[in-house]
Design brief:
Strand order of the largest sheet: 6-7-8-3-9-10
Distance between the termini: 27 Å
Order of helices and strands: EEEHEEHEHHHEHEHEE
Length: 228
């Protein structure tokens, strides 16, 4: 469960990221965060990963007050999360297999477990035959599938997706969203930032809209419409 309790974020020069934002996301939910540029979406993501702390209020994940964690504990918080970015962030000198395996290596998983699990995850995202390819040898959509596999491989309870289809065409975006939907059906909580009206409207998931740092709409089976 994710809880934002009257969360305010104020950056330098009195720039407001969030303004007393409150919402709860239950385990296993799929939630879109929408809003215009500067609405507070990035601030919400950074709070979830512990990259920043709120100026006031609390961010709570599975009973843990994230903003009270010592800096040394943040990596352990992130082990329960998978993050998917718009720009893929793959290591160009590593193969598809190695990119996914790297996420397991950095938390100390054994070579045996890596050999067992990585092929299963690649198959899940439709890349079972691409393990030996390098990022430059596959399409943008396939690169995003690799980043999803990397986010999934350590079995996180939460996946945070920041504009995951922003660099993809409509057809490829639809395929990527099918993968996210399947992941969610397996019980993983998904929080996704997007500017794609089509994706939000097609998926009919919960929509939380931010505007000037405030929660202005929280709608089950919501649509993208930014009018309030």
């Amino acid at each position: 469960m994710i809880e934002f309790k009257d969360v305010t974020v104020i950056y330098d020069k009195d720039v407001v990221g969030l303004d007393k934002a409150s919402f709860t996301i239950n385990s296993g939910e799929f939630v879109f965060l929408v809003g215009k540029t500067g609405a507070g979406k990035s601030s919400a993501i950074k709070l979830l990963t512990g990259e920043i702390k709120p100026t006031s209020g609390d961010v709570i994940i599975d009973g843990i007050i994230v903003n009270s964690l010592k800096r040394s504990k943040i990596p352990y918080l992130r082990r329960a999360q998978g993050v998917v970015f718009q720009d893929f962030r793959l290591l160009p000198n590593k193969t598809v297999f190695e990119n996914v395996a790297f996420a397991m290596e950095i938390i100390g998983k054994s070579k045996k477990e890596i050999r067992r699990k990585v092929p299963k995850i690649l198959t899940l995202v439709g890349l079972g035959d691409k393990g030996n390819n390098y990022p430059h040898e596959i399409s943008g959509g396939e690169q995003q599938r690799v980043s999803i596999a990397r986010a999934l491989v350590n079995s996180p309870s939460l996946i945070i997706a920041d504009e995951p289809t922003g660099n993809l065409d409509v057809e490829t975006s639809a395929d990527i969203m099918k993968i996210f939907d399947e992941i969610n059906k397996m019980g993983t909580t998904i929080v996704m930032v997007t500017h794609s009206e089509k994706i939000v409207n097609d998926m009919c998931k919960r929509v939380i809209q931010l505007d000037n740092g405030m929660v202005v709409r929280d709608e089950e089976n919501g649509v993208y419409n930014l009018g309030v």
